Amino acid sequence: MPELGPIAAAALIATPEQFQATSRAAMQLAREKIAALKSLPSDARGIAVLALFDQASAAIGDASAVASVARNAHPDGAMRAVAEICEQELDALATQLGLDREVFHALEKLDLSNEDQATQHYLSRTLRDFRRAGVDRDDETRARIQALNEELTRIGQEFSRNIREDVRRVPIEPSELAGLPEDFVRAHAPGADGKVWLTTDTPDYLPFISYAKSTRAREALWRAYRQRAHPKNLAVLATLLEKRHELATLLGHANWASFVTEDKMIGSAESARAFIEKIAQAASARAARDHQTLVEANGGGAVNPWDAEVLKEGVRRAHFSFDAQSVRPYFEFKRTLAGLLDLTSRLFGVEYKPVQDAPIWHASVLCYDVYESGARVGRFYLDLHPRVGKYKHAAQFTLCSGQLAVKLPEAALICNFPGPTLDDGAPALLEHGEVVTLFHEFGHLLHHLFGGQTKWSGLSGVRTEWDFVEAPSQLLEEWAWDVSVLQPFATHVETGAAIPAELVQRMRAADEFGKGLRVRQQMFYAAISLSFHDRDPRGLDTTGLAAELQSRYTPFAHVEGTYFHESFGHLEGYSAIYYTYMWSLTIAKDLLTEFRKSGLSNLVTARRYRNEILAPGGSRKAADLVRAFLGRESSFDAYAEWLNAE
Predict the structure, then answer these.
(1) Is residue 38 in some structural domain?
(2) Fewer CB atoms inside 10 A, N or C side of the chain?
C-alpha cells in the first residue's frame, strides 16, 4: 500500500505565501503532465495518454480541494483570501484543460477496448465531459466559455463568502430563554447590557427555534436567520444566474437546468421537474394532515413559520409522550463521536487511530488515520465546531482523492456542532437531529475513503453521478435510529444509564409526525433550485419566485422582509439540482431493504455494501452499483412505504 506521502493538509498550516506557492506548483505539475501527453509519439500513446491526463487532472483537483477547505474553514482571514485566489487559478486551469482540443483528440483516438471496464468507463466519461465543456466549439466561443467559467468561480465564491461572514446577533431578555435546556441557558449568560445575545449560527438557532417559549424572541431570531447575506447576495445571485444561463446557451442548451441535469441519473430538467412534482404530490395529503394538527395545537389560529417547530414539539409531547429535550443528556458530544467511530469500525472492518502530530489548521480539529489489516488506507480530519469566518453548515470536503498503489485518500468533515465542551466546562449535548447529521456526513466520508482505492484518480471516492452521492450518507442515518446501535454509547451524561429502548421507540414514533411537511419543504428547496435555472433569468424577480414556490409547496406563506434564497448556500454548489437529496433518498431506502433482511449490525451485509456500493467509487454507473447490491433494479416501493408509514 502507498504511504500518505506529502500530506494534503500540510499546506493548511503554511503561510499564505507558502500556500499559494504550493498551489502554483501543483498547477505547474499539471502543465508538465499535459506537455508530456502532447509530446508522446503517436505510436507510443495508448493507455499512457489517459494516465498523463489523469495525473494532470488529479494535480489540479487535489490542490483545488485543499484550497476549498482553506477558503471555508481556515481561521486566518488572509489564508481564506489567498485560498480564494488559488481556487480561481486552479479552476481556470481546469477549464483550459477541458477546452484543449489537442488533449481531447489524443484521448478520442484511443482504442481501449482491451482494457478493463473501469478504464473504458473512465475514457467514455472523460470524452463526454470534454464535449459538454465545449471543446468542439470555435475559438471565439471557447474563449468566451473560458471567461464565463472564471467569472462563475469568482461569483460563486462571493455568494458563499457573503453567507459565511454574515453572522447576525439578536438581543433578547434573559427571561426569554424560558423553555431552553439548562445547559443552553448556562452557556448564554447576560452581557454587561443585561441582554442575552443569540447568533444565527446553528448551535444557537436550532435549539432556540425549537424550544423557546417566547414567540417574540423566536420571530426575531427566525427573521434574522432569513436575512443573512441580504442585500449583498440579491445582486450576486442575479449575476450568477445570468452567467450560468449564458454559458449553458453557448454550450447548446436551452438553460442551465438542461445543461446540469444532462449527465445525472435523472437525465433532463423535465425529468427533474416531474420527479419534484411526483414527490410533492405523494406527500400532499400527509403534509395537509400535519399542518392541520399544528393549527389545532395552536388553538385553531394560523401557524407562523417561527412557531412551527415549537408546535411540533408540543404535538410530539402530547401525542407520543416524547420530549426532544429528554434524549439530549444521552448524546454527549465526545461519547457520540466515539460511538460513531466504533460502530463504523466494526461494520466495515477498519481501525481508526488518532494522529497526535497531524497538520491541523485549528486547535479543535481532530485527525485520524484509517487502517485495514494493519495497513494505513486513508486519513480524515474532523473540524466539527463553529467559529468566526467558518462554513456555516455541515459537509464532507475532499483533501486528496485516493488512487490504488499511488496515493491514499484524505478528507475532512466541516460541521457546526456545539462543544466539545461548553464555555463553563460542562459537557456539550447534541440534539438527536445533530446526531443524525453527524452520521450523514460520516457516510460521505466513508464513501470517499473506501472509494479511494480505484485504478484512476478521476474515478476515486464520491465521483459517481451527483444524484447518487447522497444515498450512502442518507443510508448511514438509519443507524442513528436503532436502539441496539445507540445503547452502547448513548448513555446519560449524569447517571451513565443507557438510553432506554422505550424512549428510542417513542422518539422514532414521534419523528413520524411532520414527515409530510418535511418532504414538501424539501421539494420547495428543490423547486427553487430548479426554477431559478430552467428559464432565461434576465429580469427574474428571485424573491417573488421564491415566495410563489413557498406558497405552492408549503403551507407557510412568504414573510415580507425575509430572503431565504440569498443564504441558500446550495445554490452555489448544487445550482439547479437540489432535487438530488430526495432522489438519493429513494435509492437509500431501497438499499436499506437488504439490511432489514439480516439486521443493521450484520457484518456480511455491511461488507457486501462496502464492496458493491462504496469501494467502486465512480468506476461504474450508479445504477449498476445499486443493481449489483440489490440483485435487481432499484424500486420506488421502499421509499413509498417509508413516506406512508404512520
Answers:
(1) yes
(2) C
Angstrom distance (rounded) from CA 311 to CA 282: 24
Domain assignment of residue 379, yes or no: yes
CA–CA gap between residue 78 and residue 195 (Å, rounded): 33
Structural domain tally of the chain? Answer: 3
CA angle in degrees (0–180, nearest 5) for 591-593-599:
110
All three cell numbers of 278: 411526483
Q: Which domain holds residue 339?
A: 329-500+604-644
CATH number at residue 425: 1.10.1370.40
From the number of C-beta atoms within 10 Å of its C-beta (0-12, 13-18, 19+), residue 238 rates as: middle
Domain CATH number, residue 80: 1.20.1050.40
Phi/psi at 172 (nearest 5 deg)?
A: -135, 165
Contact yes or no for 97/52 (Cβ under 8 A) = no
CA distances from 600 to 456, 591, 603, 636 (A): 32, 12, 8, 21
Distance of CA 11 to the CA centre of its chain: 23
Task: Please check whether residue 598 lies inside any domain of the structure.
Answer: no
Nearest alpha carbon to residue 438 among 371, 344, 568: 344
Q: Amino acid identity, residue 204?
A: D
Question: What are the tens digits of pLDDT across the range 34-89?
Answer: 999 999 998 878 999 999 999 999 999 999 999 999 999 999 999 999 999 999 99
Distances (CA, A) of 45 to 41, 107, 320, 638: 6, 9, 67, 48
Is-contact 74 12, C-beta < 8 A? Answer: yes
* pTM beyond 0.90: yes
Q: What is the CB-side half-sphere exposure of residue 278 using CA atoms within 13 A?
A: 13
Instruction: Please write the tens of the pLDDT for every residue from 248-299.
Output: 999 999 999 999 999 999 999 999 999 999 999 999 999 999 999 999 999 9
Q: Is residue 523 classed exposed, middle or buried when 0-12, 13-18 and 19+ CB atoms within 10 A define those classes?
A: buried
Report yes or no on 347 lying in a domain.
yes
Residues 627 and 607: their CA atoms lie apart, in Å, by 16
**Alpha-carbon gap, residue 238 to 532, rounded angstroms:** 10
